[in-house]
Automatic annotation (TrEMBL):
It is a single-pass type II membrane protein. The lineage of its organism: Eukaryota, Metazoa, Ecdysozoa, Arthropoda, Crustacea. The gene is EOG090X0E58. It comes from Daphnia lumholtzi. Its EC number is 2.8.2.-. This is Heparan-sulfate 6-O-sulfotransferase. 6-O-sulfation enzyme which catalyzes the transfer of sulfate from 3'-phosphoadenosine 5'-phosphosulfate (PAPS) to position 6 of the N-sulfoglucosamine residue (GlcNS) of heparan sulfate. Keywords: Glycoprotein, Membrane, Signal-anchor, Transferase, Transmembrane, Transmembrane helix.
Amino acid sequence: MKRWVKMIRFIGGLCLVTLLGIAYVSYLCHNSLCLAPEHSSLSPRYSISSSSSRSEILSSPASLVKLIGGFPLKVNIESVAFEEAYDMGFDITSRDVIVFLHIQKTGGTTFGRHLVRDLNLENPCNCPRKRKRCDCFRPNTVNEQWLFSRYSTGWKCGLHADWTELTDCVEGALDEYEGTSRKRRYFFITVLRDPIHRYLSEFRHVQRGATWKSARHWCGGQEFTSLPHCYKGSNWTGVELDEFMNCSYNLAHNRQTRMLADLTLAGCYTGYNTTADQLERDRILLQSAKQNLASMAYFGLTEEQSTSQYIFERTFHLDFANRFDQANATLSAQAIAELTPAQIERVRQLNSLDNELLEFARQLLHERFKMLKRRDPHFRWNWLRVIHPHNRLVQSFISAQK
């Protein structure tokens, strides 16, 4: 009997040691970014040479590759670019998912509501009263989402998740949400805004008490929770513009470039507020942001609502019931008029990367618009429907073509 007791105790102790060992190794791997060899790759997604041509920037390989700890790691998700989206369309009944990268103060809240409430679909999103989120399920399913956004799935990858976070998280988040693992085609979309207007809008939002301090800042397999704050206390209420601009680690500076770039290419948030190699870091982030923007299925500009709506509808072969209203620029103009020339110049300098990104985006948007217009045999009527959605004559013609 004693022999059996000793054996049971020995086996129990062995199991305990094994469990403790597994837990310890898991902890180490979580913090040191242990990588499985099958995920490794020999070439990074991006060419970082300063001599990259426009054609190189616009090229978009089908798979995504990210750098972690200086080594490339393949992210095994299928991202659909603009031309492919236009040629093949968006199949809401299959495995296609629209992923909305929502950058703060770009008009993304309004656009996000358009996505869940205004698309003409056979099975529209279900938006219960007194609930912020809608159920955007595929036809004949009860939990398969075709839209990954704030107003459908919620902030599953973190508050205002950026490109680095979304590409790393979206597949697993949907697998967990739907309770099954599957491969999907991802149509990344976003909205950009004039950098000066966006920056001042964020400043006023922060001045009223907003912080976004619950954002994860996930990059390279870890969460950067120790990023310094520009303020003491719970928020930055009442901050003046000069103080807002003088904080060197204010994430409002060049926010659009940072949120569209692959941050792993520039060491994530390590040394974010230092001047060491800042020019090299800026160059890498800007080029990465341009490439990621060009490889997205869609992007719009806040200042060009009608053009942006037309491009979305023709790209996805989906129509909106209501037009995108062009926001009144009077408030932004008044805010800028209250600034001194030195302050305006300072805002421009702090967002120099975003300014260059916007010029690239504006040119690309116009190229896409011209291409779609050229291929659209009913452009005149489709354009009229965008700017006059409730005109009966236009609606009658469009209906006759279907």
